[in-house]
Write a structure and sequence with these properties.
Layout: H1 7-15, H2 17-37, E1 44-48, H3 54-62, E2 67-72, H4 75-78, E3 87-90, E4 103-109, H5 118-128, E5 129-140, H6 142-150, H7 165-175, E6 178-185, H8 195-204, E7 213-219
Parallel strand pairs: 1-2, 1-4, 2-3, 4-5
Antiparallel strand pairs: 5-7, 6-7
Helix pairs in contact: 1-2, 2-3, 5-7
InterPro entries: SAM-dependent_MTases_sf (IPR029063)
Protein name: Methyltransferase type 11 domain-containing protein
Pfam families: Methyltransf_23
């Protein structure tokens, strides 16, 4: 898997404005998706590519009775989480170490672009989800990600494949998911005043191609 991160990434997520904002915004979108599209309060949630577990910690605050589990490839990042309320384990996103039909929600933010076999990841999430469970995936928009790479904001080798929303929809359908939401979000990589109303207006004006990230939600 490309783009495996280390403790420097965990430090940046608590100190660097762009990293703090991206974590906050992705967490907001994931929680909104769970609250909107999950048919019941989740009993068990899995976060794939959980990194230092900060997003999972926030989920546990919102859903205190939910079992929150994260899987992360980098052991350095796992060691950065000292919360006793979430469970982080080391593992491979393409071979999830769980039985079938055990989770109500699976999330994977900014991870599918790093794996060598995206359809395998989607199939694995389908396998471990219970009936009517949902998967929430976010990934950068390929065009804007290439721009960020070109200007030196990102290293090209960090990503295995940049994936469009159209391709994500296709992957989800092939795996057996019903698509319940697919859209773009995030107008600024560091945040801005009134960003949510501005993004809503852009979508109404069919200018959502200007938004930097993509989110897709599927139901089993």
């Amino acid at each position: 898997m490309k783009g495996v991160l280390n403790k420097e990434y965990a430090i940046a997520r608590q100190r660097k404005r762009s990293h703090i904002y991206r974590l906050k915004r992705r967490t907001f979108e994931v929680l909104k998706s769970i609250q909107t599209f999950s048919l019941k309060r989740p009993e068990a949630v899995l976060d794939i590519g959980a990194a230092d577990g900060l997003m999972l910690n926030r989920m546990k605050e919102i859903f205190p009775d939910t079992t929150c589990v994260g899987i992360e490839y980098a052991s350095d990042l796992i060691s950065c989480n000292d919360s006793e309320n979430v469970h982080l384990i080391r593992g491979d996103a393409l071979v999830l170490p769980f039985k079938d039909n055990v989770f109500d929600v699976v999330t994977a933010t900014a991870i599918i672009e790093h794996v060598s076999d995206p359809i395998q990841l989607v199939h694995e999430t389908f396998r471990i989800l219970r009936k009517n469970g949902i998967i929430v995936i976010t990934t950068p928009h390929p065009f804007w990600e290439r721009i960020a790479t070109h200007i030196g904001h990102l290293n090209e080798e960090e990503h295995n494949e940049l994936i469009t929303l159209r391709k994500l929809i296709s992957l989800f359908k092939k795996a057996g998911f019903e698509i319940v939401n697919a859209e773009q979000f995030m107008i600024s990589p560091i945040g801005m005043p009134f960003e949510l109303p501005v993004e809503k207006m852009l979508k109404l004006c069919r200018l959502d191609f200007l938004l930097l990230n993509q989110i897709i939600v599927g139901r089993k």
